[in-house]
Amino acid sequence: MEEHLLDDIERIHVEMESLFEEVMPSGRWPSMRRTRIWRPPTDVYETDTCVVVKVEIAGMREEDFDISLSSRVLTIAGVRRDPTAEAYGSTLSYQQMEIRYGDFRTEVYIPWAIIEDEIEATYEDGFLKVILPKAKAQKVRIIR
Fold first, then answer.
1. For strand 50-56 and strand 42-46, is the pairing parallel, antiparallel, or unpaired?
2. Fewest CB within a 10 Å sphere: which of 24, 73, 112, 117?
3. Looking at the whole model, is its pTM more than 0.85?
4. Could you give the domains of the chain?
5. For strand 65-70 and strand 73-80, is the pairing parallel, antiparallel, or unpaired?
């Protein structure tokens, strides 16, 4: 019973953070854009055999991501650098800035049992896709 309660609390925590991000996006104001962690758009869908987490995050390389699964929470984090700002430094003056840069993080609660050593991640065309294979349900034999 306690484990289910802890899972529920963790799921609520992740959902609350996600809702707060929708109301007060960390990248809404340019002055906050470089100092706050932002959350990239994330889709989660389920098939018969796996759970797929798809993150829209252009301008990265596969090695730029830190992906972990702990206590049923998949965390994807990293830093997206602004190559224009790095090239021009203090001489750069943006007229419009909508693309978010800097530290990002997204967390997804995974309520299904997962085969952790078979998790795969690929990055293509600006999307990171993490495939989490579901563990098969085990039947319990009743001894009479």
1. antiparallel
2. 117
3. no
4. 2-133 (2.60.40.790)
5. antiparallel
